[in-house]
Write a structure and sequence with these properties.
alpha+beta, globular, six-stranded antiparallel sheet
């Protein structure tokens, strides 16, 4: 089972830490899986490895069968990041 979460990807009971970005290829969402996890090849996902950072790079375009799930995970990541930053500023005292 493959599940896209705001902070990573769960595949067959194993969690792979990852982050999502909408920068780069137009309308595509890019997933960066940490270099220390050996994320397996998954049918339907275009994967490469960044030679400089060692990160696994997965690009998901709108016509991909996983796009809806990836977009949902990306949106949850954005919401989580916004709340985290807001909490940091709320608790900041000079």
């Amino acid at each position: 089972m493959l599940k896209f979460m705001y902070n990573g990807i769960k595949l067959e009971d194993k969690f792979y830490k990852a982050c999502y970005s909408d920068e780069g290829v137009e309308d595509a969402i890019t997933i960066y899986v940490t270099k220390y996890s050996n994320f397996p090849m998954v049918e339907g996902l275009q994967q490469t490895t960044d030679l400089i950072t060692g990160l696994r790079v997965i690009r998901v375009v709108p016509n991909n069968k996983f796009y809806k799930e990836v977009l949902e995970a990306y949106n949850k990541q954005q919401t989580h990041n916004t709340k985290t930053v807001s909490n940091l500023y709320a608790n900041f005292k000079c």
